[in-house]
Amino acid sequence: MARDQHLLNYLENEASLVVLEFNQQGRLLKSNQHARKFIGDELINQTLKEIFIDFDNSFTLDSAVKTGTTPRLLNISTATGLPQTLYFCFYELTDRVLAIGQVNVAELDFMRQELVQSNNELTSLTRELHKKSAELSKLNQLKNQFLGMASHDLRNPLTTIMGYCELIEMSSENLNGEDYKRIFSIIYDNSDFMLSMVEDLLDISVIESGKLNLNLGLHDFSSMLIKTVEDHQLIAEKVETQLIVNDKLPVGLIRFDPPRLRQVLNNLISNAVKFSGSGSQVTISAVTRNNHLQVSVQDRGPGISAEHQKRLFHPYPGINTKATRKERTTGLGLAISKNIITAHNGKIWAESEQGKGSNFTFSLPGFTATEGT
Amino acid sequence: MKRTNTRDDHPRIAEIYNRYLGHLLQGERQACLEIINELIENQVPLKSIYLQVFERSMYQVGTLWETNKISVATEHIATSVTESAMGLLFPIIFNAEHCGRKAIVSCVATEYHQIGGRMVADIFELHGWDSYFLGGNVPVTDLLRMVEDKQPDVIGLSLTLYSHLPDLLRHIHSIHNAFPDIKMLVGGQAFHWGGRDSVMNLPQTQLLDSSPLEELENFIISHT
């Protein structure tokens, strides 16, 4: 008897079960503490239909009793305002009906797992979002810095050109032929730099908008390499730098866009010349490895620090790109070159040691040797 | 991290920790967030917040759960609140200058407790490493694909439940077979219950043991 009372006390005060006692007319006579907490305090005298949500109006006390102890899925209104689905068993006593409801633990566990998984995904995504946002913010900052630098670099040669134009206008009677020659040479150099800068800016804008279209065809790369090196001979000689091309260039064909690859070669060779000291050498070589054409431009300049190497091919490197002899550079050449090589399904990289020089290499796939190799 | 700190570098940290833990166990999200915001405003170093608030409180929550003093629901709520609180530090964490090193941090398959792994990923990020955090319950095939793609310098594997140790060992072997040169760091609450011997002598594997986040920081400093 004492054990029965203990069980009843447990059901009334402690069990996480909804226990409802209805009279034969379907009105609630009694509820346990958990039911009052879960559904609400003002339950007494409420009807079955007020407590259970009966969508198709088929739920009666008789039908409930018939299902007996077989758990039946029923929706009930709760104190939170949100309906809850419980599994109910009905027990017919002498003068009343006992309804005992509980949540499905397996279902609850499944929901919990789903919730944990969703929460994990959400927090991971939030983390990624913040990370990307920080990266974008840094990039934007670098871009703004770069734009400021580019505007400044464009204004400087323009100021020089205007200054010399004013000089010609104001003092033309005092200038001789040699003076004019020198002034026009300065104006030409400054215009040339501005043109190359504008071209680089246009190129980087095309590349960044994903509109870089290649006009690919099978060509002899080595012939183009020799011509490009010849174009740089004069400038190299002026600064007493020797351009050396390796003896045995590969003979064969490879698919590429000639003006674009020439642009890459121009960037690498002109950089190597700019950053080499007087009396130095720049070695240009091309070899084949596993059907890949590998082209290297090696200088004996000051080299690049490990810190600067990390952002070397970035469009907004945020580093000082000053050359050794005060030649000006936009700093965009390597970023443009990387994009051109990548568009050819190739790779470009740099190896450098401070004080010993730098070696820039790119490789392109699909080299087909022809006779003579 | 900008500064090196000791455990006692904030005079009221013990009192603040107790207050935070109290709110955390009650699931009082807002109160916990306010405490972290207060620490940020007072420029308490992130290392102190991670070690003396997040790591300490979550180990305490784990111990309370393991000794049946709190329910799994309380533990999940505490985790969720801590993850929100950690989010407040994102603007500082992701502001570090990148050093070019990469780390992948992941939990093993079947392990849903990801907060320890996330702390590890954040510490890497604080030191300028690029950290890719894959989250909880990551199948080994997905992890290997990510390693192939990102070519990290190190992989961090987090284990919270001791019962998942066999999964961790399988992950370690799979990674080592596919990428024998990559170093692995393993750690987590699970090792309080054992398993040290199982991972101690595995090739390329280092256990972050008694003070995991501090040991992690030492590793990062010596590999940056």
Concise summary:
The complex is a heterodimer of chains A (373) and B (224). Chain A has 373 residues and is an alpha+beta fold. Chain A has helices spanning 2-13, 33-39, 48-51, 61-67, 105-171, 177-208, 221-238, 258-274, 306-309, 333-343; strands spanning 18-23, 28-31, 72-76, 84-92, 96-102, 217-219, 242-245, 252-256, 281-289, 292-299, 347-353, 357-365, 368-369.
Overview of the structural elements:
The complex is a heterodimer of chains A (373) and B (224). Chain A has 373 residues and is of the alpha+beta class. Chain A folds into 3 domains: 2-103, PAS domain (Beta-Lactamase); 109-208, Helix Hairpins; 217-369, Heat Shock Protein 90 (2-Layer Sandwich), CATH 3.30.565. Chain A has 10 helices and 13 strands. Chain A has helices at residues 2-13, 33-39, 48-51, 61-67, 105-171, 177-208, 221-238, 258-274, 306-309, 333-343; strands spanning 18-23, 28-31, 72-76, 84-92, 96-102, 217-219, 242-245, 252-256, 281-289, 292-299, 347-353, 357-365, 368-369. In chain A, the strands form 3 sheets. A 5-stranded antiparallel sheet of chain A has the order 2-1-5-4-3. A 5-stranded mixed sheet of chain A has the order 7-9-10-12-11. In chain A, strand 4 (84-92) and strand 5 (96-102) form a beta hairpin. The longest helix of chain A has 67 residues, at 105-171. Chain A is elongated. Chain A starts with a helix and ends with a strand. The model of chain A is unreliable at 319-325 (pLDDT under 50). By secondary structure, chain B is an alpha/beta fold. Chain B has 2 domains: 13-93, Methyltransferase, Methionine Synthase (B12-binding Domains), Chain A, domain 1; 102-222, 3-Layer(aba) Sandwich (Rossmann fold). In chain B, 54% of the residues lie in helices and 11% in strands. Chain B contains 10 helices and 5 strands, in the order αααααβαβαβαβαβα. In chain B, helix 1 (13-25) packs antiparallel against helix 2 (29-41) and helix 1 (13-25) crosses helix 3 (46-66). The longest helix of chain B has 21 residues, at 46-66. The two termini of chain B are 12 Å apart. At the A-B interface, helix 5 of A face helix 4 and helix 6 of B.
